[in-house]
Amino acid sequence: MNREFDHIGIAVRDLEQSIHFYTEILGGVLIDRYRSEAKGVESEIAIIHVNDSRIELLLPTNNTTSPIARFIKQKGKGVHHLAYRVDDLEQAIQYLDSQGIRTMKNTLRTNKHGRRLIYLNPADTEGTIIEYCDYPDQNNES
């Protein structure tokens, strides 16, 4: 199974300030900004390309139910997750199951860019939040 780094998700408290830092200081390009009100997601997201890498800035929009809000309360702002692109998400989930790595089934979804994703259980990943994703309707672009 092929896996390659896709993006890094960063939890932020001030989206405008973070966008400024990643575009003006690091030379990135803001390629999209949108709000997700999906239950368990509730966040405003800014996607920035910096050279050949992608960063997703994540600002919680619901301080009660957003997992990003819980993350910031527990750990502060900063790196929230690492995402790896796989060829086929269902096949990757089956492989993880066969290896005893649990996924957080309630996080399985498709975002506005057609990226299907699921998070692995941090208890099985040395505490790191890891996302597996694929792009079934696109040529691996988001």
UniProtKB/TrEMBL annotation:
Family matches, as Gene3D superfamilies: 2,3-Dihydroxybiphenyl 1,2-Dioxygenase, domain 1
PROSITE patterns recorded: VOC
GO biological process: L-methylmalonyl-CoA metabolic process
InterPro entries: Glyas_Bleomycin-R_OHBP_Dase, MeMalonyl-CoA_epimerase, MMCE/EMCE_epimerase, VOC_core
Keywords associated with the record: Metal-binding
Pfam families cross-referenced by the UniProt entry: Glyoxalase_4 (PF13669)
A molecular-function term among this protein's GO annotations: methylmalonyl-CoA epimerase activity
Top-rank taxon, per record: Bacteria
Signal peptide (residue range): none
Annotated ranges, domain VOC: 4-135
Assigned protein family: Belongs to the methylmalonyl-CoA epimerase family.
Protein name, UniProt field: VOC family protein
Provenance organism: Salibacterium salarium
